[in-house]
């Protein structure tokens, strides 16, 4: 190859350098035009650009050339558009959601029922379904007009009864008090009131518990008597063994003298007296003593607890019955308590006759007695 042919080939390297220089120059001119435009802010960016130091020697940049100096604070200020912020909805509670669901269901059910009632022909319904609905309606109406008695009896354990075994247990001074005492000719004790009372009271408690009542066996000075609450309280005693020179016999039933002459106390007294006389061959006596009408138990029990004291008989003239007929005595007292418990709510006016209900006698009373709840 000759030297002329070599020299005649185009110089590609020069052409490539020329293109690069042109591209750089174009980019520099575009940057100069962009920097020459004013900023949208209120501050004149041109004045800030003139005061900016040059990158090399601290001289301002030449006109038409982009400055490499960091922009001033004025250039960094931009108008910020307020952004619309939506409040986050408060999460609803579970209760409000449940109530809302119930409301929607009820409204929907009422709406559907209304539509069915007005727009559905009854002939399209199954005749058996219609007949069944009519029977159910008739039974409901009949049940409202004539309610049926409940087959299950009210449980008796909801009723509380207190039985005081007279003179049983220790007294207030921790001394034994046997109550009335019978002596023989040598002044030896042959019979005590406490033994008779306890034998009968124990049997009464057993009878009532067999009927599923809640029964409390209480001593004469039982600490539980303070503010004692019960449906009925009966204190069982026997009368004295003193020889009065004549035959003194009979039973006595007494209530607190502080209680009214009409009310549950009187009704309980008359139930005990009537049923005791129907089972025990003794006459009723009305010789009430201070220990009966003002007994210490009446000052302790709750005012709404009806209570009576029963003197079953005199230990001298009525000794045979009091010592040999404990079961019969307990039965008579039990019937009197049942008379009161199962018929509470009647008057306590005195009556001359009685009516039989179940196995006990109920006094015929005139006016209603308020029922005192426990």
Low-confidence regions:
1-10, 41-64, 346-357, 366-374
Query: Gyration radius, to the nearest Å?
Result: 55 Å
Distance between the termini: 138 Å
Assign the structural class, choosing from mainly alpha, mainly beta, alpha/beta, alpha+beta, or little secondary structure.
alpha/beta
CATH architecture grouping of the domain at 156-363: 3-Layer(aba) Sandwich
Sheet-strand content, in percent, reads 5-15%
Q: If you average the pLDDT, what whole number results?
A: 77
Percent of residues in helical segments?
25-40%
CATH fold category name of the domain at 156-363 = Aminopeptidase
The ordered H/E elements are: HHHHHHEEEHEEEHHEHHEE
Q: Could you state the CATH homologous superfamily of the domain at 156-363?
A: Zn-dependent exopeptidases
Task: Identify the strand order in the major beta sheet.
Answer: 4-1-5-7-6
Q: Oligomeric form of this entry?
A: single chain
In total, how many beta strands? 9
Number of helices: 11
3D structure, described in words:
With 374 residues, this protein is of the alpha/beta class. It has a domain at 156-363: Zn-dependent exopeptidases (Aminopeptidase), CATH 3.40.630.40. 39% of the residues lie in helices and 12% in strands. The chain contains 11 helices and 9 strands. The strands form 3 sheets. The chain has a 5-stranded mixed beta sheet with strand order 4-1-5-7-6. A two-stranded antiparallel ribbon has the order 2-3. Strands 8-9 form a two-stranded antiparallel sheet. Helix 7 (193-210) crosses helix 11 and helix 8 packs antiparallel against helix 11 (326-341).
């Amino acid at each position: 190859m000759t030297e002329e042919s070599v020299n005649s080939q185009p110089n590609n390297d020069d052409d490539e350098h020329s293109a690069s220089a042109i591209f750089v120059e174009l980019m520099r001119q575009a940057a100069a035009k962009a920097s020459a435009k004013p900023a949208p802010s209120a501050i004149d960016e041109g004045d800030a650009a003139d005061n900016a130091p040059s990158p090399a020697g601290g001289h301002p940049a030449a006109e038409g050339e982009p400055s490499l100096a960091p922009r001033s604070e004025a250039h960094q200020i931009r108008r910020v558009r307020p952004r619309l912020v939506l409040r986050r909805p408060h999460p609803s509670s579970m209760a409000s959601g449940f109530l809302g669901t119930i409301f929607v269901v009820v409204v929907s059910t009422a709406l559907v029922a209304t539509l069915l009632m007005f727009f559905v022909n009854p002939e399209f319904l199954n005749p058996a379904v219609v007949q069944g609905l009519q029977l159910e309606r008739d039974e409901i109406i009949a049940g409202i007009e004539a309610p049926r008695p409940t087959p299950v009896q009210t449980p008796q354990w909801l009723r509380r009864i207190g039985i005081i075994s007279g003179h049983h247990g220790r007294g207030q001074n921790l001394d034994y008090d046997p109550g009335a005492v019978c002596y023989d000719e040598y002044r030896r004790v042959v019979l005590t009131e406490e033994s008779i009372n306890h034998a009968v009271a124990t049997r009464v408690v057993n009878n009532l518990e067999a009927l599923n009542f809640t029964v409390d066996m209480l001593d004469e000075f039982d600490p539980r008597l303070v503010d004692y609450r019960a449906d009925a309280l009966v204190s069982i005693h026997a009368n004295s063994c003193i020889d009065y020179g004549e035959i003194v016999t009979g039973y006595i039933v007494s209530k607190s003298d502080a209680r009214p002459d009409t009310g549950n106390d009187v009704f309980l007294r008359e139930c005990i007296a009537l049923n005791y006389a129907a089972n025990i061959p003794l006459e009723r006596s009305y010789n009430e003593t201070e220990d009966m009408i003002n007994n210490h138990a009446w000052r302790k029990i709750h005012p709404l607890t009806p209570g009576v004291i029963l003197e079953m008989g005199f230990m001298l003239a009525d000794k045979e019955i009091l010592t040999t007929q404990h079961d019969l005595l307990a039965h008579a007292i039990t019937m009197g308590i049942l008379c009161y418990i199962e018929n509470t709510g009647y008057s306590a006016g005195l009556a001359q006759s009685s009516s039989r209900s179940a196995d006990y006698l109920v006094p015929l009373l005139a006016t209603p007695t308020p029922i005192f709840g426990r």
